[in-house]
TrEMBL record:
Pfam families registered for this protein in UniProt: UvrD-helicase, UvrD_C_2
Domain called UvrD-like helicase ATP-binding: residue spans: 186-550
Matching PROSITE patterns: UVRD_HELICASE_ATP_BIND (PS51198)
InterPro entries hit by this protein: DNA_helicase_UvrD/REP (IPR000212), P-loop_NTPase (IPR027417), UvrD-like_ATP-bd (IPR014016), UvrD-like_helicase_C (IPR027785)
Keyword Coiled coil: yes
Protein name: Helicase UvrD
Source species: Paenibacillus wynnii
Keyword set, alphabetical order: ATP-binding, Coiled coil, Helicase, Hydrolase, Nucleotide-binding
Coiled-coil residue spans: 9-63
Entry keyword annotation includes Cell cycle: no
Amino acid sequence: MEDNFQSAYQEEEDRLNGALTEIDSVLEKLRATPVYTGHDYTEQALEASRDQRRKDLAKLRQEPYFGRLDFQGSDEDGRKALYIGKIGVDREQVSDRPLVIDWRAPVASLFYSFTGGTEPASYDAPDGLIEGLVYLKRNVVIRKQILERVADTFNRESDAPAVSDEFLVYRLGENKDNRLRDIVSTIQEEQDKIIRAAKNTALIIQGVAGSGKTTVALHRLAYLLYQYKEQVLAERMIIFAPNRMFLDYISDVLPELGVGNIMQSTFPDWASNVLGLTLAHQDAAETLNRWFEASGALPEITDETPGRFKGSTLLMEIIESSVKLLEDSAVPEGDFSPWEGAVLRRATILHWHNEEYSPYPPAKRKERVMARIHRWIEMELKKCSSASILKDRKKMGAQREKAYSSKWPKYVPLTIYKQIFRAVKTPEDWSAEPPAIIPASVLKETRGDLKKGNLREEDLPPLLYIHYLLFGNDDVIKFDHIVIDEAQDFSPFQIAVLDLFVRGHSFTILGDLSQGIHAYKGVHAWEEMQSLFAPEHTAYHSLTRSYRSTMEIIDFANGILSAGVGSPLLAVPVFRSGNPVRLIPYREGSAEEGRMEDITSALKMLSTREYRTVAVLTRSLKDAEELHARLTEYFDDINLIDGSMTEYKGGLSVLPLYLSKGLEFDAVIVADADLKHYGDTAWDAKLMYVGCTRALHELWLLQGGKLPTYLESAALAVETATGWPVEEAR
């Protein structure tokens, strides 16, 4: 077996050297080609293509490919060795196969879908289904032009066992830095199906913690750009992430895949830009404070909770009927007369408004009717017999035109929204009472906010919908595809509004209901989103395999969900073992000084190991701020993550547990994992589940008293370690 490995390694090293020579030759010729700086459009396009190839090849020469697949089609004479990489490259000389095949190409799908066996394999090609035999599937690791690893995951001509899990575990076991990385070399079959799914579908993905949801969605964007290059543009794609720091965290994945110019935003930032709001929406910190920082029991979450109600489609119906009322009574009563003797009948204006300009939305219809009236005035002015009469009528006409325009409804989304909640005076033909369907608590809170000039995040979808009903979406980018991350924290209203700004219901909607710690605004079941689309326009996928954490951490986290939530959405861990989860009582009980010393000791121990990222998770932001202040006495470079950051710096971090969602760390310390800080509720259990599943390799829970029931149950269900490691010396 050793001889076989040496032979395979030597074969791949020779092939790598040859590939690098060919890449360098092509790159040298491209760099020697003079850069075109003229104004000819065709030459500019050719230069742009050459420039992109220069960049691609420069990146490719560091890591040309990651996989090899030997395949023989049923209608071919011999098998071909196909090398698969992030970017496809043709050979300098005509050949029956490229130097490197792009991972998104149809034949490359075999590298991900083929899992072994002697039966024929197949893939979908533009010309139809291609069948054949796979003889070899090989993973290679190349870094900085050096071949580091060769692993055969299938060899039809060898009796040696496949090592697909071994290679995956090897890649997963690598420590993380401050950026999410691509998984193009380790995409699994169930992930590949999602990545290659049809474009015009609202794809909903339920994925357990660590299942690679975010990374899969980013790879899907790269695939759609490759597969539908004539139909989609990167500039017309957008990723909605939970916060700006998370956008920074994922910012390297698409460039690594050779994709640029895809928009990345939070929903509030995008919505505020579309609405042109000069009134800043209320800081999200206030909402977080209400739900995560306040002492005492969590307020009950029902369909009448403000975020849940204003995120429902019930409010859409109220908005539609309110705008329809304005539209139906838009044309003022009475005829229009710019001066004595000139009359434009209301019937004529109504005909323009209700017939000729009916395809336009209300605000644009008003613009066209008023422009038509203005042209009618100009035509009437041409009938004047003297300059003095013309001057007087022009002045009077302008005044009356302005007065007439002021009688029309004010098509301002914020004003209409305030009118719906009776925060300002309503039109005369509206009922004095607000819509009965609005719960009293929602009405009171929203009216109070609007009168103070405050807008919450939950107010943005209604405002966007009003804006759409009034103005349409011609002045806003119509997206080719939308990715929504942490979608369990989105409302149905948000999705319904975004569907107005995307072609063909083309969504990738991903999240995890088990991490639904923002249930006061998000969905409680995926059916709430699926019901927004016709069955033929939506699909659902479930990712149950977790690639992030060790078996010990995943099994412990599953125990939390089972005991605390009763959730069936449990993760299946990859066979990667590590240290047991460690439960550590504070040695000085709950005394504050002892607590601080123990947390400091725990961080010192974990920070001396070969970890790049270690986090201390606290129950509240106040706790994180106080702890960070103390820890800066012992650690020169430790970051406080408080929700206002736009960049994740890696290294050592302190943050409230509720801000950790979406991030991952080599090691995690959950401080104060006791009943004093976490209640025995399903919501607290989800919160703890989020915190525990941030850890890749090591998880410690420190507590100063009795554990919540779900932690006790989890500790009994799996093997855990209690107390400090033996190497600890304090």
